[in-house]
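Morning!

As promised:
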Amino acid sequence: MAKVLTPRAENYSQWYNDLVVKADLAETSAVRGCMVIKPYGYAIWETMHDVLDRMFKQTGHQNAYFPLFIPKSFFSREAHHVEGFAKECAVVTHYRLKNDPEGKGVIVDPEAKLEEELIVRPTSETIIWNTYRNWIHSYRDLPILVNQWANVVRWEMRTRLFLRTAEFLWQEGHTAHATAEEAMEEMNRMIGVYADFVENYMAVPVIKGYKTDKERFAGAVETMSIEAMMQDGKALQAGTSHFLGQNFAKAFDVKFANREGALEYVWATSWGVSTRLMGALIMAHSDDNGLVLPPRLAPIHVVMVPIYQQAAQIPGLVAALQALKVKLENRGLRVKLDDRDTVKPGFKFAEHELKGIPVRVALGPRDLAAGTVEIARRDTLEKQVVDMQAAEQVIVDLMEEIQRNIFVKAKAFRTAHTVNADTYDEFKAALDGGNFVMAHWDGTSETEELIKDETKATIRCIPCDAPEEQGRCIRTGRPSARRVLFARAY
Amino acid sequence: MAKVLTPRAENYSQWYNDLVVKADLAETSAVRGCMVIKPYGYAIWETMHDVLDRMFKQTGHQNAYFPLFIPKSFFSREAHHVEGFAKECAVVTHYRLKNDPEGKGVIVDPEAKLEEELIVRPTSETIIWNTYRNWIHSYRDLPILVNQWANVVRWEMRTRLFLRTAEFLWQEGHTAHATAEEAMEEMNRMIGVYADFVENYMAVPVIKGYKTDKERFAGAVETMSIEAMMQDGKALQAGTSHFLGQNFAKAFDVKFANREGALEYVWATSWGVSTRLMGALIMAHSDDNGLVLPPRLAPIHVVMVPIYQQAAQIPGLVAALQALKVKLENRGLRVKLDDRDTVKPGFKFAEHELKGIPVRVALGPRDLAAGTVEIARRDTLEKQVVDMQAAEQVIVDLMEEIQRNIFVKAKAFRTAHTVNADTYDEFKAALDGGNFVMAHWDGTSETEELIKDETKATIRCIPCDAPEEQGRCIRTGRPSARRVLFARAY
């Protein structure tokens, strides 16, 4: 199997596209901007779903389901939402097809026009808060801690598999609270859940912080995000959590009677992550041979390959591998025995590397006679020959070791590519070098916009842990109280 | 808590609507025909999802995800599909909104018109087979055993929560095979999986059989279904599995090279169940007090209520219940301790009955002193006082007993309401009596149509286990080789 991926150094963007398609994760479809998520890619997303869903339930949330469609007029109800939110949406105007009277095929029935157009949800704040009006009457009905797993559509002009697609899968939490403090706590809790998931399951280190006014979600009072570094030094926003204040409660007239019997508007949060996380996972760890998957999200943990010259050798090799397979499965690992006789071991090895299977076990007649087995790890490509009796424990330990190692490696990479800049020249050079840049900024949207226009860098966030430090804005020289995180971003 | 449901005997249809809303399962939304599935209802659907998903994986299937939208022209590709399939679909014609220049709010941007309209998927055969063309080249690529969990939209004019909604949630399996035999086996396997699920988890007995030409899925060569009886004697189609022959392969030009190297069209199946199953679950078992849920699908298995006159009694009662709760949770049961002090026990009892919680445990000071506890089962409404030490095992056993009992009850009801009819008068009387009717039919679509027009009954299926029996069609008197299942249906 020849090298199938464009090397990262040659063209990072092409490498990513090659990888997504060649590793059978996703592909483009006949519908512009919409992707097909293939079984191998979907299996990773399913595991993400299951882990996150458990985390949401552990923090007291329940799932529900709201309509795919939103009446057009709902978007105008919250002024900032309609102003700031992209208007590229799929619009449903008719509800019937009919046979084309002039030939074969079908046409849209002009008589089946909707009175009010429906928008395929780009996000569900409006339809959900319209629903909450009937669910909330008193403080006893609060908090409402609801999450939805759903598809959403944003009519993006330039799309890339997983990173930016017209339709994508996501979850959106929408909570309602009696006090601002409680809602802000919820915003913080959920960005913490996301950081926990991305760091401990995806093995991608993140920087948690606050968005600037300019980058905030349309309709939010405060937006928090987690920002991850890809191998080209660009940032990818991996999750957001919003404190919506009373904006949607006011827009949809959602009030509750407090303990004293007075009516107040309800406080809100929303938070979400999407199939974009697949893009982050792929770009953070993978190499020129293919995917590198953290064991906690890998659909297959271990692949086994018998190596033989003659068919007569197969049964003995397969029996020994099968015995090890059962032991590993009993330890909770997902194991695949690749006994295809239509392709050679070298082809299989390349394919398993392309698909990022964390551990490969190879067994040949000489190993069998010697009571040994060869174990290769995907992250470092290192091989070791171990005693067959020791293999089970070695592999189980390797899972934790690989999970740890790829996180450490990604973190070291980020550390090596994060620099402080104190002048605009330093700043631009650091960006061009593929870095996260910690720099002072005067706090105005105007300067932020100016820097973006001149450098393509945006303020990814004001990190939660940014220390107070007096300085001067790299662009205007005006005073600043802390450095913020600048980067070019996906 | 007063009776909140219209009694079944008074108005079965209203009873159902009351129940769905009052038990917090689902409600209508601001979008015509689209429902909101509330957390309690969604929790039941999630369990259905999880069980079915496990069954699909155990039978070798993988999940994937295909686009929400389908290009309009795809529908015309398979002639029977476009002819027979309902044309009530949501049609996307534009991709952008803009601010209304004449005032506030947004309007559809007339300049953002799509070249080809997109249909929100009513089912995905066309887009999936268009995708499979690139996945399938040789017999080695077969079979493809893929399932998708998704939302679909059919613009129904008259909608009812869960039973018929414009948007609903479902799964759709789409498999590709090298031979007709293998595809037919798959069709049979999957209708068997559905029957297993509906009988053993939903506790609803079903009749498995073949659809007539007239009732077959548009584009299918053979359709199998499982049919369940509701308490009003009407049938509800709970799942379908289709052998599609080579129809979609031909429409989308999907060929494979067989072992001899010759090109052949691929053979297909599709199969699905939807949130309609929620309607079947509710209607099959519930009573005038509310839901009756089979333990295997109940979000909460056991609810506990402390009964006290004075606040001082609470800690002792709660401690005793808490101890039992831990024991039950260790046995895998989901237990809720209802210690609200804002409502009386009678109110709680009614609410728990409305929500169909299989077992209720009540504990008062006298029970506590005597070392006993009161256990009530939802299906029969029977109560028993048992020794606190025995309670754990009694409740665990009750789960299996209730699961078994509601199935047996539903089956006995169906048996009592299934009759043979040999004349048209008998036939009509049996239908009016709320029965499934086994009757002879001459095998023509014309007669089937005539009977439907005259009686509103349709042939639900030709049961797989219908014995050969010579007879005469109830409507035309022409010869018939076996009885088929007629009923009025949802």
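The mean pLDDT of chain B is 96.

Hope this helps with the figure draft.
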